[in-house]
Amino acid sequence: MSGLLEGCKTCFGTQNLYEVLQVQNKATENEVKKAYHKVSLKVHPDRVDEAEKQEATRKFQILGKVYCILSDPEKRAVYDETGEVDEENTPEDKDWNQYWRLLFKKITVESIKNFEREYKESEEELNDLKQAYLDGKGSMDYILTNVLCCTIDDEPRFTKILQGWIKEKEVPKFDSFTKESKKKKESRKRKAKAEEAEAEEMKKQLGLNDTADSLQALILERNKKRAGEMDSFLDSLAAKYGGGAGGKKSSKRSGKK
């Protein structure tokens, strides 16, 4: 077994390079890149505390090598045919962090705000809203968790759009949406306000502002408090847009359907 495959087995529980990146073996080049970014974000040494840095660095290095192979048509073809990897042309001393930064635009507060402006009320947001409604069987809690950039303030807008779709029979009528109790709605609002207050308090305690470094520090602190909750907004953004917070531009249109 090669050193890379052994490392994959040790760090990710599999020797299959596609399984390490959590993609199918028929994944396109762009899908492989997005998958690499998503998985590497979860183990990036900058996003873990000091006690986990050594393990994260090892995983990060292995992911870089995996991506180098699956992103190279010739190396990928050899791997697909033989199950072997070409490690001779995958340097051990490569600066994988610099390589990663070259591949992916750094996500900053400003880039997120720009993305949000383009995404809200776009065709893409409407598609995501419809999919979240269907996947969550009408649960507004599920919708607000799974539609990018949204907050509790978007609930009235989403409700109006969904009611229009139900009337036009574009989506089925789910009791969890049409018959949601007032008590549950109020509970959701209280929870959202509490989380907002928590975030603001955390920013004050850490002395943060709206710079990129402050954003990174806030994410790290929240991850420490909520270990295991890695499907954050940034993870969703990265998984969907490969790290470019602008992604493809969606044409804006009315929220009415």
Structure description:
By secondary structure, this protein is mostly helical. Helix content is 63%, strand content 0%. It has helices spanning 3-12, 17-21, 29-43, 53-70, 73-82, 96-103, 109-119, 123-135, 140-146, 155-167, 175-178, 182-206, 212-225, 233-241. Helix 3 (29-43) packs antiparallel against helix 14 (233-241). The longest helix has 25 residues, at 182-206. It is elongated and about 60 Å long. The N and C termini lie far apart (56 Å). Residues 223-232 and 241-257 have low confidence and may be disordered.
User: How many helices does DSSP assign?
Assistant: 14
Largest pleated sheet: none
Question: What is the ordering of alpha helices and beta strands?
Answer: HHHHHHHHHHHHHH
Question: Helix proportion of residues, in percent?
Answer: 55-70%
Compute the CA-based radius of gyration: 21 Å
Structural class by helix and strand composition: mainly alpha
Count of β-strands: 0
Average of the residue pLDDT scores: 77
Broad shape: elongated
How far the N terminus sits from the C terminus, by CA atoms, comes to: 56 Å
Which parts are unreliable, with pLDDT below 50 for 5 consecutive residues or more?
Answer: 223-232, 241-257
Tell me what portion of residues adopts beta-strand conformation.
under 5%
